[in-house]
Amino acid sequence: MTREAGLWNVANILTMVRVLLVPVFVGCLLTGGTAWRLVALATFCVASLTDVLDGRLARSRGLVTDFGKIADPVADKALTGAALICLSALGELPWWVTGVIMFREVGVTALRFWVIRRGVIAASRGGKAKTLLQVIAICLYVLPGTLSPPGILRELFMAAAVVVTVVTGVEYVLQAMRLRRSEPAAGR
Is the Cα torsion angle 139, 145, 151, 153 positive or negative in sign? Predict the structure, then answer.
């Protein structure tokens, strides 16, 4: 006999920790200076690690909840979005990059809610690669200038993140359309 996972489980707590780390990250990043940038980087890395852990724990321990299905992608978008918006506001990342990535992220989240009654759009390998590229690129941009690799390296990672973000966004749109069409019309 299986039992339903409770709301307060380790996976959901990790998701909430990620949400709580967003304002900490933003505050540290916007404070400026080498030390605060390093604290911001560490905070972003810890928050990103919770994203990896919460999903694995939820699946491996049967802790998947409706709350987690909704809160996890929202927490992801909050962290990534806050990082991109702050970097653009600081003049370190072009606004169009932030706009393209945020448009895709919000769009895919909306698609997931649009088809939630028909099925789940699970993260694909491309989606996981997109997340990894975004995290690496953001980390390279958050690094203090004195420790940052050549600008071309971080720009290449961000360019790769943007390309994979757009391509996987199109894939998710196609998957959502298939899910919507596969559902028989009501009342037939």
Answer: negative
- What's at 31, amino acid-wise? T
Residue type, 136: I
| DSSP line for 60-129 | HTT---HHHHHHHHHHHHHHHHHHHHHHHHTTSS-HHHHHHHHHHHHHHHHHHHHTTTT---PPPHHHHH
pTM: 0.86
Give the residue from 38, 46, 39, 44 showing the smallest Cα distance to 145. 38
Place of tokens 């790769």: 160
Residue 119 has pLDDT above 70, yes or no: no
Tokens coding 62: 């049967």
Q: Cα(181)–Cα(176) distance, rounded to whole angstroms?
A: 9
